[in-house]
Design a protein that fits this description.
0% strand; mainly alpha; 73 residues; 4 helices
Length: 73
């Protein structure tokens, strides 16, 4: 399983929290690329629901990852 910002962007509007099956259904209905569906199919079956993209891709970059202090530069 691999994620990129482009692939993860297809799940931004997903109905969080969601189960694995709900995310797969959302991906199919929203026309997400096959790579997104394949990644979702590889998710752990033991987890009841996912609260957000961070649960699926722990390294998902946040706004803070792109923030820099303008006063420093």
């Amino acid at each position: 399983m691999y994620w990129t910002l482009e692939l993860a962007s297809h799940l931004v509007e997903a109905p969080w929290p969601a189960t694995k099956e709900e995310l797969i259904d959302y991906g199919i209905r929203s026309g997400a690329p096959i790579e997104v569906i394949e990644n979702l199919q590889e998710l752990d079956d033991d987890i009841e629901s996912y609260e957000g993209i961070d649960d699926i891709w722990p390294d998902y970059p946040t706004h803070d990852d792109f923030f820099f202090d303008e006063e420093e530069h």
